[in-house]
């Protein structure tokens, strides 16, 4: 078997058959759609229960499983796929914290078309965070699938009882087992999060995480099928795919693939930074946190989901934001309508489109800009849980206030949490003042880390510079897909400048800017939102099908391919013709 010297500790091997498969842990599509799989004893869930819930919440966080969304009827499927899982903690040279790698090897592995799909979790999710894309496409086809959590995940460390998460997902005390994450500080308060507090700026290594997961995948195929070994990039096609942060990770991997491991790359809605082209996530995210609440008060967004409800506390807070910006001298006009229009024009001037702002209303209403900003600033500045920038901190949320988590809440984090609080009984605290607009102080501080020139601002910029994409090799099939309505990672800041750069450098990427698609397929189940948009996953599956036909059936790889012209779903159920595929 090939060397996997980067693995720390033992490789866990588990079998998943007889109502406990790889793709849905035995839940099937109906079970994935249903209520969260229960824990018989919430304070002490079993390893199998934790895994089942982790897979279910990963599906629910990524795919539109709503009754009108069409998953399983118009596109996608969740068949029973028995097989084995190989999981370990791995290490990037120079990093403080380990990351998870996991390989799913189906019993129906296609030995005639040796295929390994490698992927990275979306957002800051745990190890199953890309199962709805990579697993759902690859496992039924007979491919093995290698996952990495890319240095993120929900292995939260709780200082109150000095516990974290072991390899099997169960809680364990520091010193009793190897943990997914344990802070360097031996004492502290609150909750420590690997993405924010590892001290590693993990985003700068996402490409290396993906390539390492591919190596682990080949080694585990050697172990699964010793009579077929060795599995190498020369005899096993390695397809990299991911979405959101996972999409950015596979594009980073493409630029670092000096050994020509990857046979093709399909990236959906990637968080990709191309210096000199577009804008960095931290830049437009910290801008959005300040300006979007006021801009969305503008009359043009009167019918936009999440944006306008004149009687809501949210609307009142957004009106207050306009007044705050006026008081700071950032808005010159005095009437609310004029201030909202002025904030809107400010964002238009920095590259935001009407489409991006409209769907960004969901991210604004859910407070994602502040939440992402606090975590990413901490990661970029390599801060610990006790000295996050701008006064932020994470702690257990008990009756709306900081407290100590109970055993049941703590036990559920690995399976249920998204990797960045708040949520699942963990709150984001601090960064506020006693003004009428209490959150503005913290987000203004976060913004100054981008616009300022002190030591912290310079350090943050250095960390962002380390995220720069590198050129993939000339002959690598590469396809970027993004929703035209993406309001979290707007195309004007991410995929479009990246693709333009590749073209200028003589590469031939395919690019689909999919009409009516946005960033969160899972949001399409929300009333009044899904009727305006299309899911992006079916286009990702279609791109992977095209890549498969190229790699295994000899179909030529096109230099360009027109983007399908889909139509919004409307109030009814999704129909095949609406996708335009």
Note down, in words, how this protein is organized:
- With 581 residues, the protein is of the alpha/beta class.
- The protein has helices at residues 28-33, 47-62, 131-138, 194-197, 206-224, 245-256, 281-295, 313-327, 336-349, 354-365, 368-380, 407-416, 440-451, 455-465, 495-504, 537-553, 576-579; strands spanning 7-16, 83-90, 99-106, 115-120, 144-148, 157-158, 163-165, 171-173, 191-192, 237-243, 264-268, 393-398, 401-403, 426-429, 478-483, 510-514.
- The strands form four sheets. It has a nine-stranded mixed sheet, with helices on both faces. A three-stranded antiparallel sheet has the order 13-12-14, with no helix packed on it. A two-stranded antiparallel ribbon has the order 6-9.
- The two termini are 42 Å apart.
- The model has no long low-confidence stretch (mean pLDDT 96).
For the secondary structure, the number of strands is 16
Helix content: 25-40%
Question: Which segments are poorly predicted (pLDDT under 50) over 5 or more consecutive residues?
Answer: none
How does CATH name the architecture of the largest domain?
3-Layer(aba) Sandwich
Distance between the first and last residues' Cα:
42 Å
Structural shape: globular
Query: Count of helices?
Result: 17
Widest sheet: strand ordering = 1-2-3-5-4-10-11-15-16
Corresponding CATH superfamily of the largest domain: Alpha/Beta hydrolase fold, catalytic domain
Tally the structural domains. Answer: 2
Share in β-strands? 5-15%
Q: What integer is the average pLDDT? A: 96
**Main sheet record:** 9 strands, mixed
Radius of gyration (CA) equals 23 Å
Question: Could you name the CATH topology of the largest domain?
Answer: Rossmann fold
Structural class: alpha/beta
Keywords: Hydrolase
Protein name: Hydrogenase
